[in-house]
Specification:
5-stranded mixed beta sheet, 6-stranded antiparallel beta sheet, single chain, 30 helices, about 675 residues, elongated, alpha+beta
Length: about 675
């Protein structure tokens, strides 16, 4: 099992990648805040949740003690047979284990040393903040405490305290800063940052945890900006310009929410971005299967109920057998060559389908008895069929010789519950022998059950091993359930995909990626130009799944090549798709006389919603030699055509757009 803290780091990393890929451009800031906080909690809670055995790909760790307790005679005999030949090997292995254990112990000490250091740093920051908050004069504004500071420090807030130097700002900017920080306090953003800091204490070694805190912090600023712009007293251009005036190089302690945060460009872009359509909320639901997949792959399966052990001690016989009881009623329907039977009891119902030729002498139109015999036991049915429908009662009897036969194969069936599960799936001794013959030794019953239920037969295993020789038993289950076969793997390999590990194959198949999609991907993304070495090539292969999830196909890429964008990187293509920078949008600028616009400039134009129509409005005001940087700068600070008209009306008649940008910066929202 993956160590708990590494498992938590893995979940946090996966959630961050998911968020960066699908959610960070969305303007559902409240929902993003909930997702970020929930993922932080799940990273530490999910590894502790046991998974039902039928869904888990892991073994149960408690089986060996049970086997020894139930078969003490075999436990005594086995060591005497194997002890002498194995003895020398065990001595050599012990030396290696001691060496590995010492390294692991050293890493554990190093980890806890880091936890202590970062924990002390966290406490020190908290103490300093409380000291600053309660050791100086304060202005009480309702529940808000305004602490006046000195120096060139950016304003920030912590809990219900606002730290600000009032001498640095004019009255309107000062009021906007206070309103901004009050929103942080009202929405209790300090709690988010405290939780992120606590996560960093235990995940200090994980670079993605540091990115997680930064991402959470950015979303809080987006959320606060959005709330600010909903205030009647706040104008967008005025507020954005106040951000420029507040910008300062000094940073406060990391436990505080900061007015500046050096996120000015991102915040202005987000404020001017188009609001996300409610129909894009489907992206958030993808997080659920990701968490379920992690749990099924890595979580320890739930142990069998311990209450069954007490029944064994009392010699009681349990009738509840793997979702159905050993005795109850049956209702059957014959369809062609199969018989569908529903088993009913007081507490459980289950359905199974059998082949008609497995039954002998079905009683037609009269009461009778018939049986179904398999290696694991015999089920006796009493009742009758009228036409193709029948009903009656049943009783299951386990085959004790089957227990002995399976025990020889290393599979211990502990009670009748195991028997009826093996009976319903029809697991034969020869099936276990087949698995062992194909290199899968040390089997247990919980590995065999899903394999047999999915009909993972020898022909399938042999065909898969021809293309993935080292595939393990746990990967055969998702392979079969996703209908991954030899032909699919060979097609993916021929398409040029490099790293065909079992995990990558599963990811590709689950996303619906086929060989044609990969070929189109490689042919249309100019791999030789975009990738300098083998490592970059592997990174490029990783982009295949990202492209598929975003809906980027060959037609999408060629639509940009048709208008001259032949060397777009994979990151550029994903950004174009995410920001909805369409070829039509680019063409509209070409028609306005702006050719060969760089990809990064397109992102800025789209983020600020700059259009050729806006440029035409500037030209109508006499600015004929405009470059796109001028328009972006003017739009960012609020030097709009209407602003320029108003300034011209007041006698400010400049020939250069930069002068109006500077004027807007000086006037702010006035």
């Amino acid at each position: 099992m993956i160590p708990y803290i590494l498992y938590s780091a893995l979940i946090l990393t996966a959630c961050l990648v998911f968020y960066k890929l699908l959610l960070q451009k969305e303007t559902f800031f409240h929902l993003n805040r909930f997702v970020l906080l929930s993922c932080m909690a799940l990273a530490f809670i999910l590894p502790l949740v046991p998974v039902p055995q039928q869904f888990s790909f892991r073994k149960i760790a408690v089986e060996k003690p049970v086997i020894v307790a139930k078969t003490p005679v075999n436990a005594n005999v086995t060591p005497t047979v194997k002890e002498q030949p194995v003895q020398p090997t065990l001595v050599e292995e012990t030396k290696q284990v001691i060496n590995i254990e010492s390294i692991v112990q050293l890493l554990v000490y190093l980890y806890w040393f880091g936890v202590i250091v970062f924990g002390l740093n966290f406490l020190m920051q908290a103490v300093i903040l409380f000291y600053r908050a309660y050791s100086t004069s304060v202005i009480q504004d309702g529940k808000f405490r305004i602490i006046e500071i000195t120096g060139d420090k950016a304003p920030c807030s912590f809990a219900n305290n606002i730290f600000i130097n009032p001498e640095k700002y004019e009255w309107e900017t000062y009021n906007q800063i206070l309103l901004h920080e009050k929103i942080h306090i009202e929405q209790k953003h300090t709690i988010d940052l405290l939780l992120a800091e606590i996560v960093l204490i235990f995940q200090w070694f994980n670079p993605f945890a540091w990115q997680w805190r930064k991402t959470l912090e950015i979303n809080l600023e987006f959320l606060t900006d959005d709330q600010m712009l909903q205030q009647d007293v706040v104008e967008k251009e005025s507020y954005q310009f106040s951000l420029l005036k507040v910008a300062a190089p000094q940073f406060p302690l990391s436990l505080t929410t900061n007015y500046n945060q050096s996120l000015l460009k991102k915040r202005i872009i987000m404020m001017n971005s188009k609001k996300s359509n409610v129909h894009t909320t489907w992206k958030y639901f993808f997080l659920v299967p990701i968490m379920v997949l992690f749990a099924c792959l890595f979580n320890q399966p739930a142990a069998q109920s311990q209450t069954l052990a007490s029944k064994e001690k009392q010699g009681e016989h349990s009738n509840n057998q793997g979702g159905m009881e050993t005795e109850g009623s049956w209702f059957a329907t014959i369809k062609g060559n199969s018989v569908s039977i529903q088993f009913k009891s007081d507490e459980n119902n289950s359905n199974s389908t059998f082949q008609l030729d497995e039954f002998n002498d079905l009683p037609k139109d009269k009461q009778g008895t018939f049986t179904l015999t398999r290696e694991a036991g015999t089920m006796t049915f009493t009742g009758k069929f009228e036409g193709n429908n029948g009903m009656g009662s049943y009783k299951f009897t386990a085959n004790k010789d089957y227990r002995t036969a399976m025990s020889k194969e290393g599979i211990d069936l502990e009670d009748d519950e195991d028997f009826i599960v093996f009976f319903m799936i029809n697991i034969k001794q020869s099936y276990v022998q087949m698995l062992k013959k194909n290199g899968y030794s040390n089997l247990d019953k919980d590995q065999i059950i899903p394999l047999a239920a999915l009909d993972v037969n020898e022909a399938y295993i042999t065909s898969i091993k021809q293309v993935v020789p080292d595939i393990d038993l746990e990967n055969l289950v998702p392979f079969k359930s996703l209908n991954i076969d030899k032909a699919y793997i060979e097609e993916i390999r021929k398409s040029g995909y490099k790293d065909l590990s079992p995990g990558n194959i599963i990811a590709l198949k689950s996303q619906g990626v086929d060989a044609k999609y990969i070929k189109d991907f490689h042919s249309s993304t100019n791999s030789k130009k975009n990738n300098k070495d083998a490592e970059d090539e592997e990174d490029k292969d990783d982009d295949v799944i990202a492209f598929k999830s975003l809906g980027i196909d060959q037609a999408f890429i060629y639509s940009y090549k048709k208008i001259g964008y032949n060397d777009l990187s994979n990151d550029d293509l994903m950004a174009l798709k995410s920001l909805n920078v369409t070829p039509e949008y680019i063409t509209s600028f070409k028609k306005a006389g702006y050719n060969d616009i760089k990809a990064e400039d397109l992102f800025a134009l789209k983020s600020l919603n700059v259009t050729p129509e806006l440029i035409l409005q500037y030209k109508d005001l006499g600015f004929n030699d405009l470059n796109l940087d001028d328009v972006v700068g003017a739009k960012a600070v609020g030097a709009t055509p209407s602003f320029i008209k108003s300034m011209k009306g007041k006698g400010h008649d400049f020939k250069n757009l930069d002068k109006y940008i500077s004027l807007k910066a000086v006037l702010g929202g006035n």
